[in-house]
Amino acid sequence: MLIITALSTSILCLLHIFLSFRVVNFRRKHKISVGDGGNQELLRAIRTQANLTEYAPLAMILLGCLELNGAPWFLCLLLAGAFVAGRILHPVGLKEDDALSVRVLAMQLTFVSIIAMAVFNILWLIWLLFSG
User: Fold this and answer.
1) N or C: which end of the chain has fewer CB within 10 A?
2) Could you tell me the pLDDT band of residue 60, with boundaries at 50, 70 and 90?
3) Structurally, how many domains does the chain consist of?
4) DSSP 8-state secondary structure symbol assigned to residue 91
5) Using N-to-C axis directions, what is the helix angle for 73-95 and 40-68, rounded to 10°?
């Protein structure tokens, strides 16, 4: 079963819907239907949503592969937790100009967790192929 992947994906989907509503609200507020119209507030909302859209599918595919191939649950949970935390923190880091350190932490969690999932997938598959 893909319990950790299902939970992580569900949380990320809810976050994506929330971020999508923010974009819609900013578009209405600033009366901009396409693009960002040069509005920084709208641009930040668009990029926050798009950034999640860009990274979440890769991470959830990698996480699902780990789970399906029988990687230890605690490893999957740790990597999923780091990724989800990074994705939740990212909008906070883009919300304000002075929140650069939060944004950096968010991207570090995102990149490290995706890289770790990719590397652990490779190592786990090598282990499975040659262990028995």
Assistant:
1) C
2) very high
3) 1
4) H
5) 180
* CATH code for the domain of 77: 1.20.120.550
Secondary structure of residue 13 in the 3-state scheme: helix
Sign (positive or negative) of CA dihedral 66, 111, 109, 60: negative
CA–CA dist 98, 100 (Å, integer): 6
Average pLDDT in the chain: 92
82: left (phi over 0), alpha (psi -120 to 50) or beta: alpha
Q: Which residues contact 13 (CB under 8 A, 6 or more apart)?
A: none
Encoding tokens for residue 131?
A: 């262990």
pLDDT of residue 70: 96
Q: How far apart are CA 13 and CA 91, in angstroms?
A: 14
Confirm if 42 and 25 have CB atoms less than 8 A apart: no
Phi, psi of 111 (to 5 degrees): -65, -45
Residue at 114: amino acid letter:
I
- Which domain does 59 fall in, by range? 3-130
